[in-house]
Design a protein that fits this description.
Elements: H1 9-18, H2 32-94, E1 105-110, H3 119-127, E2 135-140, H4 143-151, E3 156-159, H5 163-173, E4 175-178, E5 181-184, H6 188-195, H7 203-211, H8 217-223, E6 227-228, E7 250-251, H9 256-263
């Protein structure tokens, strides 16, 4: 069998030179719709970057303002507490009896369910936003709210919360109602977006507005979702009895703070 002799290097070069070079194809034209889409995306990305930079700058400025407000509130709380102590001491020295101002804020906790409940009582509990057992809400003290509490007293317990109770509830159990959704209070921006028009821009502003029952208490309280508490540590004593009779329902004044410690 005859074998073909391998080509020399010179012959290979001649053959490669004889081949015509390939013609390059023209690049494909980009559709106009795709160009418009790219331009739109670039514009949106630029706007988003500018907005993020502006928000970051505003957040930095707000942080300094938030710290100033927090310090002012702490000073206000301490001065109020100190004034009350001084008035008690002065009254004792004068042989008088010191009477503290009537409370403006109540904390209401539901302790019983719906079994054998009158429809009017159920409606009042809905108005108070106490739809479930161990739900809690803040309430402004006035004639209307006190009359409502009398009607539902066997199903709730209430009292005057102190600053620690209000702060612990909002920090630990606080959720915001935004567009009908239950949103955790994880960022001051949530508060500022909803209540900024009322000069409430951070969680300390919210606590101050609730505790002092400020001019925008209604908006601040409505912004908060009803607190969902746990069963009290050690359980209830007697739900069907009034607190004055050794039970759990009804008015318990400052002892509501002890109950909240067990439920929070």
């Amino acid at each position: 069998r005859d074998r073909k002799s391998p080509r020399s290097a010179h012959e290979n070069k001649v053959v490669m030179a004889s081949k015509a070079p390939r013609e390059r194809k023209a690049p494909r034209s980009v559709p106009e719709s795709l160009l418009k889409k790219r331009k739109r995306n670039e514009k949106l990305a630029k706007i988003a970057a500018e907005k993020a930079a502006a928000e970051e700058k505003a957040a930095t400025a707000n942080t300094a303002e938030i710290f100033k407000r927090a310090e002012k509130y702490v000073k206000e709380y301490r001065d109020t507490e100190r004034d009350a102590i001084n008035q008690k001491r002065q009254a004792k020295l004068d042989g008088d009896l010191y009477m503290a101002a009537e409370p403006k804020l109540l904390l209401v906790v539901r302790v019983r369910g719906i079994n054998r409940m009158h429809p009017n009582t159920r409606k009042i509990l809905q108005l108070l936003r106490l739809r479930q057992i161990q739900n809690a809400t803040f309430l402004r003290v006035n004639k209307a709210t006190l009359n409502m509490l009398k009607r539902v007293e066997p199903y709730v317990t209430y009292g005057t919360p102190n600053l620690k109770t209000v702060r612990d509830l909002i920090y630990k159990r606080g959720f915001a109602k935004v567009n009908g959704q239950r949103i955790p209070l994880s960022d001051n921006k949530i508060i500022a977006d909803k209540l900024g028009k009322h000069d409430i821009i951070c969680i300390e502003d919210l606590i101050h507005e609730i505790f002092t029952v400020g001019p925008h208490f209604k908006e601040a309280n409505k912004f908060l979702w009803p607190f969902k508490l746990s069963s009290p540590l050690g359980g209830y004593k007697a739900k069907r009895k009034n607190f004055a009779e050794g039970g759990d329902a009804g008015n318990r004044d400052e002892y509501i703070n002890t109950l909240i410690r067990r439920m929070n």
